[in-house]
Write a structure and sequence with these properties.
heterodimer, A: mainly alpha, B: 1 helix, elongated
Chain lengths: 362, 39
Amino acid sequence: MAATSTTEFHSVDNLIGFGRRIAALIPGLLLLAAVGYAGKFIEQSIATYTKARHIPFPNIEYVLRAIVLGLIIANTVGILRIFEAGVGTYEFWLKAGIVLLGSRFLLGDVLHLGGISLLLVAFAITLSLTFMHVLGRAFKLKPKLTSLLAVGSSICGVSAIIAAKPAINADDEDASYAIAAILALGAISLFTFPLIGHSLHLSDKAYGLWAGLAVDNTAEATAAGALYSDAAGKVAVLAKTTRNALIGFIVLGYALYWSSRGQAKTVSNKAAFLWSKFPKFVLGFLLISLLATLGFFTKPQLVSLANLSRWAFLLTFAGVGLRTSFRELGKQGWRPFAVGAIGEVFIALLTLALVYGADRYL
Amino acid sequence: MSNAVRPSRLAFSLDAYAVALALVLALLVRLNLLPPIKW
């Protein structure tokens, strides 16, 4: 009886704790929604105004407006502590949005484009990992910091660094340097990639593939794709998701390398390790795509799912701007940033060449 | 053995919750329990 009461007490306690954690997210979530919606509202208002008065005005996507609004808030008034937890959920919305985006792909397209992406990703990863290690040695970075930068820039940005950090037993300081460098470079790529894509007159598919292969963080890759066009955004997400699916293999490779040198923990069960690092949202994306291919949803329902995905991405893009603090990024020192930047330029050029080569098969 | 790398539960939760939310929303849309979502 006493044991039952204790269990009940713990259940109530857990429930209250869970309720408090959810309540703590609400202010930040409201901020994400307000910033994202403001971006969309400004875009629509300007488009309506200029169209009604026949004023030629370039259509700047809500994506850029939401990001810039977030950047302005984060780098002027800053993010109050009360908003931090909710703003941090932007990755959650990104993953939910990617799963829902599966409804806009037929499984055949996923396998076709995903297959091409996989080949290009494998090629690009091999070359970029090698290049990053050569650079890291030339700039005399600590070997584990180089490993983190290499994983971050060749696979999937911050998630890959967070996944690799415990596996290779890297310092907190190294991880924060690598994350800061990847975030700073991601912010730069948001503004440079669409400009380069337009100046090279890349097709939506080619540009989307390039953004998905070259931009590190999933949120920034999705935003960089969506900034070019809706179709490019779709392809960018698919290519980036393919890249994300390989995260476990690369992190496992590094874990085995550093443990063989006695500088990281041993990996007891490789299959469990791979599963733990595998991004589960990839499976959700494939499942929704399969259901859409099998005709599980009607056409209006597919439109609703695609729009739900857009709303989820709206919160993500607001979060990308709100969590980027130039002051914090500037504190991290120039060498990790320089290695990351040179590596990024190399990866961007390499993947651009690969995409040009693969364009006829897209 | 205690030195072995263990899976991160937190990372799993975020992914799993995001997938679960998306699937629930897809099911609600399929069953017409949500109004048409506009953009």
